[in-house]
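Table 4 source record.
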Amino acid sequence: MDHKNVFSALQTVCSDVISALYGSPNSSNGDTTDRLLGVMRQIQEHGRAVEPLVTGFTAVYHHFDFDAQTPANGFRTLVKVVHSCVIYIIQKARYIASNYSGTFFRIEHNVAEMEAYCSALCQLRALLYLAQVLLNDNAYGQLYSQEEGGLSEKFVQEYISMHKACFYGRCLGFQFSPSLRPFLQTVVISMVSFGENYKKQQTGIGIAALSFFTSGKYAMNPELRGAEFERITQNLDMQFWKTFWNLTETELLSSLSRIASSVVQVNLTLTVPAETFSLPLASDPTLSVSVTPPVAHWGPGPVNVRLISHMLRQGQDSADLLAFSRSEGPYRSLPASFSRQTAPLTPCLLIHFHGGGFVAQTSKSHENYLKSWSKDLDVPILSVDYSLAPEAPFPRALEECFYAYCWALKNCHLLGSTAERVCLVGDSAGGNLCITVSMKAMSYGVRIPDGIVAAYPATLLTTDSSPSRLLTLIDPLLPLSVLYKCIDAYVGTGSQTVQPARHLDTLDALGQDTVKLSSNFTQGATNCFKSLIDPKAPSSSSSTATTSSNGPSPSKSHSEDRPQEVREYPENFEPLRSRCLVDIQTPCTPIMKNPFVSPLLAPDSLLKGLPPVHIVASALDALLDDSVMFAKKLRNMNQPVTLTVVEDLPHGFLSLLKLSKETQEASNICVQRIREVFQQEEVPPAHRQPRLS
């Protein structure tokens, strides 16, 4: 629908609701009716202000696309999110106008819905104003503001003070595919209940019991859930996020994941010893270069990897490979029909670096889609379990991934491959490592991979602002404070204050709680709680949403909270303000601009000669502009690059493979890009695997 028609429909339906309220016998409902009248007028006011902003962006946002066939950038995404919010309001308002006089119309529930979306529209309006500043200040076609002390610091101050809870309550996930919203609700409910009990001295059973009971109140009270999620994202430390994200590593949840995943014949965990070895030079295979073990921060050490193969291949059951095996069993039990027959070596090898913000998760968290890929591509996959920040900041992870890559080239015959064609693949932080490992391979003079497939990669690990990063205000999976904590941990500025990792052996019970939430609350909360439970008096914890939702003109005390240096808003507008104010530290160190940390900032000399890079991004991802700008940079250097942008999915969609048709289709795009790397008709001599003695 054309945006002019959308905003015209918004004004019309708001007027229809107002007329229905005045002409209905239910208009005697007093305060509730007055609230609904007030919120509809506020929505009209926001709509009138937002429409010209959207018109301005639609006139120019095509200048920031990668190409005409890939219409995607942060400015487009902001417009798309505003449209999603407005369309929901239109649909809800039409329902109210048609049913307000009905006997079974639940006015309190519908008023709360409209107030929540009015708050969301108000905050999106504020983001459009901030994006307008970026549009005016940035160079032509540039999506990032890289001025020292510029909008980056201003936006951090705005983020701290802006009300965000409305996006995590009734409005949770409105911008994403409907099939993912129950999952997002489960994640947020689990996170806030876990956060409430995180620092309490309880046994595993005690934590599970507390989490289960507190989860119920967050499922039933969206305002409370949103306020608590806002508090958690701004206050809890990195160790909380590491512990919560690593819940996927617990045996219970990983067992459930295995049930839904493809069956593979080989799932072997290995430890690569810290030993120096040599590799042929790509330019002259008669010469060699020594590859030394990773040494950053604590000296030489081994690297852990996981070998996944749908089919048992030659070398994978050899004594030489089993000598590297770790505690996990090397093979799943096989049907007797397999008889452990080994298939020949395949010419292809996939090397994978997992995501997790450089701070969490392992190959085990990503087994689900890796097993599926191994079956679809019929290739072995080596996934690297690099050391995690903040205990292991840059460059430890890069050193380990590069060492594992070189070891795989040296020992490909043990992995079931001749490695005639090698593809690096990674998501988020792993996508960053795919690029930087290839850069390091070029600098060493060893063979580079035949291609890179990077899903939603982080290519700029600085705090610079972009229109897509404004989405961190509303993203339940990648809030700005969490993004900054991950950057801060990886670049090492907080490494001196690291606390020992919290032991996870007490978390299986919590994992059980999460599963109960998934099966009970996911099905029930969306359909039952929202329709049957309508709390009339939000608790004090959720007062931010209800207090702030009554208009764009806040009280004087809210105005005083606003940072004085921010002047991006018109005089008659102020975004809603949060009562959960904290001081988010903005990491700032020269390491952030190191090209092996932020490849988007790498000079052409370090990127020239990279293999074909295939990027798969999401239009609703806060890191979308990282992908767009890096793809543009490579294209302008005449480097081979493709960019594919999927719709309606969040950051981390590969880990959600089995949740929806849309995530499966996005995974299939990655598989197709990997297949293209493997099926290249001609492999340049510098890329070919030299014979190793």
